[in-house]
Prior knowledge:
Layout: H1 3-10, H2 22-44, H3 49-78, H4 81-95, H5 99-106, H6 122-145, H7 150-171, H8 173-178, H9 180-195, H10 198-201, H11 207-227, H12 240-252, H13 258-263, H14 266-293, H15 299-326, H16 332-355, H17 368-371, E1 396-399, E2 407-411, H18 413-417, H19 419-429, E3 432-437, H20 454-457, H21 459-472, E4 477-481, H22 510-530, E5 534-538, H23 548-558, H24 563-569, E6 571-572, H25 573-587, E7 594-596, H26 599-602, E8 607-608, E9 611-612, E10 615-616, H27 626-630, H28 633-641
Parallel strand pairs: 2-3, 2-4, 4-5, 5-7
Antiparallel strand pairs: 1-3, 6-8, 9-10
Helix pairs in contact: 1-14, 2-6, 2-9, 2-12, 3-6, 3-14, 3-15, 3-16, 4-5, 4-16, 5-6, 6-9, 7-9, 9-12, 11-12, 14-15, 19-28
Amino acid sequence: xxxxxxxxxxxxxxTFSGGFIGVDVFFVISGYLITSIIVAEKEAxxxxxxxxxxxxxxxxxxxxxxxxxxxxxxxxLWLLPRxxxxxxxxxxxxxxxxxxxxxxxxxxxxxxxxxxxPLLHTWSLAVEEQYYVLFPLFMMFMWRFARHWLVVAxxxxxxxxxxxxxxxxxKKPEAAFFLLSTRGWELAIGAFIALGRVDDRRAxxxxxxxxxxxxxxxxxxxxxxxxxxxxTPFPSVYALAPTVGAALIIVFASASTWVGxxxxxxxxxxxxxxxxSAYLAHQPLFAFARxxxxxxxxxxxxxxxxxxxxxxxxxxxxxxxxxxxTNRKINARRVFGTAIVGSVLFFSVGIAGYQTKGFVSRxxxxxAITSNIALADGARRCFGIYDIQKSEKWLCHVGxxxxxxxxxxxxxxxxxxxxxxxxxxxxxxxxxxxxxxxSGCAPFLGVHALREDQSRKNCHLLxxxxxxxxxxxxxxxxxxxxxxTYYTDGxxxxxxxxxxxxxxxxxxDIDISRGAFLKGLxxxxxxxxxxxxxxxxxxxxxxxxxxxxxxYRGALVQGKVDRGLLRxxxxxxxxxxxxxxxxxxxxxxxxxxxxxxFDELLCDDIACMVGDDHGSYYFDDDHLSIYGAExxxxxxxxxxxx
Length: 642
């Protein structure tokens, strides 16, 4: 049952917007089963650590190795060098059971780029594997030296993990989603049920109690699947609904309850049998389909791929999982030998891919075309850092060494894309400046937040800190850079809407978002002009309809970069102007503000090009790459020389 919502969520079916909670349900079930096995064997005097690890290896590794092996040829054929390098890192991480740590440091689970990672889903297996290593050792120690304190010790660990999850969801949501330290409490819920001898006590429960408890549990899980979404902070208190729901089903569901009978039907039993293989199969299928098509497959295509996932799961379960798990002729030595050989093999392939930067020799064209799809990283030491609004290391100095800063560059992630060229242009003109910013924060005073997650980032406090610095250091010029339309109109399809106006009551109202934008713009311009600082607003660079990598992937596979293809897939000048109409009109109301536009450098009369035959101008669909930003250097030098 737990695998269904996960697969449907990854397929992009919006009805199942909270389907990711299937993993949480699985964690509870796993904690219950593993603890039950260990306790039963400890009481019988038959528990063996080697035997435990052998069973886990039989259960997990054959299908996992098959999935990894099947991914490699498709990755070789379809992934660009930078993508192949990332895939190679994931091969290494999966082999070492640390893919959750890798993905926690690479990308957020709900980011669009995550959908293109074939092995993203192995993060939950890594959590399980780390749990399998640590939990039996914990149980052995407590059983021998402090058995009466076992539940108390487990409660302390679970409480610590839950605390970490609550803190992480608020402060480090990307990392918190993936780590054992923030997921361990979910496994512990299952362990508590096993230690409570629920199986022995269920017979003493009344029929109405079992019925009510199991229905409540099933309802909590269904609620989570349909009510949660990518915007739900997770794991946090919200994770209690699916995990408590799973616990209630384990405790109360039986053959006499409605939920118990439903889960005992042949379809649910069948899905349960193949659930592990289905979980392994679905993400690579979906990811490679999106990569190959260079866009999101349609509803029917994703539905077909969903059925294909379960069809492949049946084959894997029948011919890989079951034989390896049940064949006693495959002894422990052979199991561990296969595990070591397989892990070393995939580790080696991953290292080779990483060392060769994604096997760049697969393509004959210049590697500069793909290596240039990179974002300036010089600002990372002072951009988007934790608690930037109060951190001591909140800004960088750019330009000529030893010179007093005369300008300040401030903005969201679009400012990062221009960090290198501002630094180079300042050095060339003998000037110096300061730089700071954080992702998703509009550089406006007077508005608490323009986007929902800004309130958690305390963007308003950072805006006030920048203003105070500019005022106290008598900075002559401030350059405000942002993806302006993200805060007023979203993208070309409007799907980026996630706004918060001046108060939490103003959620998701485009008129209020625009009103907050106008308010913030007015107060920001007035504040800076009042202290004698010149305000320069950098217009948003053209936003493309798609990332450059799929465009160049097709060209590389064909053996040439066709400028006509690049033009056809680039955003038209007309559409770009239409998206910018509101914000540009707002900016035009302030004649004392210098407006800097790069449209004439990035667009012709027809289109705003995504790149040329030497490389991509873009890192993704809206941030300039290092190569693209260099096109603006002369213009920025001229501005700084003024």
